[in-house]
Design brief:
- There is one protein chain.
- With 194 residues, this protein is mainly alpha-helical.
- It has two domains: 33 residues, no CATH class; 142 residues, Nitrile hydratase alpha /Thiocyanate hydrolase gamma (Nitrile Hydratase, Chain A, Alpha-Beta Complex), CATH 3.90.330.10.
- Helices cover 47% and strands 11% of the residues.
- The strands form two sheets. A two-stranded parallel sheet has the order 1-4. A two-stranded parallel ribbon has the order 2-3.
- α3 packs across α4 and α8 crosses α9.
- It is globular, with a radius of gyration of 19 Å.
- The termini are far apart.
Length: 194
């Protein structure tokens, strides 16, 4: 195949495979257990869950109010929650205020609604720079906000985790919840994109 170059594995992927092989070799886990865990995070826990929450809030004003009042309970209404999802606070973006989430200490993150945190979220550069120069970091994600939009940075912790409720599309007519959920990405719900 001309022009096709196989992707080489990064050092993180190589380490993960080596650890997995060692754990299986020592009889501590089986490949079926690993497959089940991966399957859980691919199909049951992830940003598609958060996107469902956002889409519901966009189409159901009563749900939106409950979500903003008590994120943990409202997310629980959709069967979501559990470890890393306790004490969830939902922050609503408006035309005048843009919220963005960081965890300056480590990588506290609402797994039930966003899945596994991306590498950049855990990086020292993101964790340190987002609190000091949020507009510059947002611009690196392609998000440039006018000067009249206030940027609020929220620091997740083991006690509280945050989910950003992005602005709804200008025209939602004719779109059902599933279609609207398809418009929402993990990055919208962290607040690095508008």
């Amino acid at each position: 195949m001309t022009g096709h170059h196989p992707r080489t594995k990064g050092s993180s992927e190589q380490r993960v495979e080596a650890i997995e092989a060692l754990l299986i070799e020592r009889g501590l886990i089986t490949s079926d257990v690993v497959d089940a865990i991966v399957g859980t995070y691919e199909h049951d826990v992830g940003p598609m869950n958060g996107a469902r929450v956002v889409a519901r809030a966009w189409v159901d004003p009563e749900y939106r109010a409950r979500l903003l009042d008590d994120g943990t309970s409202a997310v629980g209404e959709l069967g979501l929650g559990g470890a890393e999802g306790e004490h969830l606070v939902v922050l609503e973006n408006t035309e005048d205020v843009h919220h963005v989430v960081v965890c300056t200490l480590c990588s506290c993150y609402p797994w039930p609604v966003l899945g596994l945190p991306p590498q950049w979220y855990k990086s020292f550069a993101y964790r340190s720079r987002m609190v000091r120069e949020p507009r510059a970091v947002l611009a690196e994600f392609g998000t440039t906000l006018s000067d009249d939009v206030e940027v609020r940075v929220w620091d997740s912790s083991a006690e509280v985790r945050y989910l950003v409720l992005p602005l709804a599309p200008d025209d939602m007519s004719g779109q059902d919840e599933d279609e609207l959920a398809g418009l929402v990405t993990r990055d919208h719900m962290i607040g690095v994109v508008r």
